[in-house]
Amino acid sequence: MDALDSLLQNLAPITHNLPAPIQNLLISLLGPNCHKTLILDLHPAQPCLSLAISKVLGLGIIAASPLVKLDQIRILLASQSAQGISLLAYLLETASFGVGLAYNARRGNPISTYGENALIAAQNVVIAALVLKFKGQGVGAVVGFLAALGAAAWALGNEQLVDEDLLGGLQIGAGILGVVSKAPQIYTVWREGGTGQLSAFAVFMYLAGSLARIFTTIREVGDNRILAGFVAGFLLNVVLAVQMVYYWKSPAKEKASRLVKENGEQVQEKIALVSGSIAGSTASANKPKTPSTRRRG
Predict the structure, then answer these.
(1) Virtual CA dihedral for 262, 270, 135, 244, nearest 10 degrees?
(2) What is the pLDDT of residues 40-89, one digit of tens each?
(3) Rounded to the nearest 5°, which phi and psi values hold at 131?
(4) What does the angle CA 13 – CA 17 – CA 18 come to, to the nearest 5 degrees?
(5) pTM for this prediction
(6) pLDDT for 19-37, tens place per residue?
(7) Considering only Cβ atoms within 10 Å of each terminal Cβ, which end of the chain, N or C, has fewer?
(8) How remote is the C-alpha of 125 from its chain's centroid?
(9) Is 85 helix (H, G, I), strand (E, B) or coil?
């Protein structure tokens, strides 16, 4: 305890003399009372300690959210294939994030409890557009998808079109959508017997993030409509993570790799046969004619 007291005494001049912008930021995050308790008095007491942990988790999720789906985007671009990716799952999840973003923003909830929604939704839009492209849907389908998304975002932000009661009902629906959005992906993995181009990094980041969001929602928001969605989503994320581990080196993946290799070898054989045939035909055509030795009668 003496060592801890000595450390706190040495830290006190530092925390009391932090630059004003940092002090103001900490006050806005923690509130005046917890700022005084944790930063100025250096006293890790409840409930301020749990609030600080929640803020750190929330800001960490937001900071990491730009990386959640980048690996999935990279895999799609590298493979030029949407195998193992459920378009429906991404459409449902994007709709859920959009409603959740509008609901939290309009209710004035701390941005540390939902800020990642916007960043992950933007990445989902990119992934959905790539899946549409690689499934051969064409530019028209991508443009239509983006236009519908923009119209929905505008409507959710318009209080005259979507009032608070309707938005609350939509949030309940968004929680259900967030849960349902996992089902097509889980089914796709089960049906194909492998994870295809699904990113393990994204799956496990989602699992950790959804668990952290349960804590931050309980501590800072206390809205059961939001909490129920995170709890159910976490349970389905567990299922998806288990599938990722179980199908990590699945026969389906090995079969797909073998088929690609065999198809490549077959193509090379056909090219060799065609090349040989062309070469033979050219040689026959260029071969000089020899005079006939047959005597004419």
Answers:
(1) 10
(2) 888 888 888 889 999 999 899 899 888 888 888 888 898 888 887 888 88
(3) -65, -45
(4) 120
(5) 0.66
(6) 888 888 888 888 889 888 8
(7) C
(8) 10
(9) coil
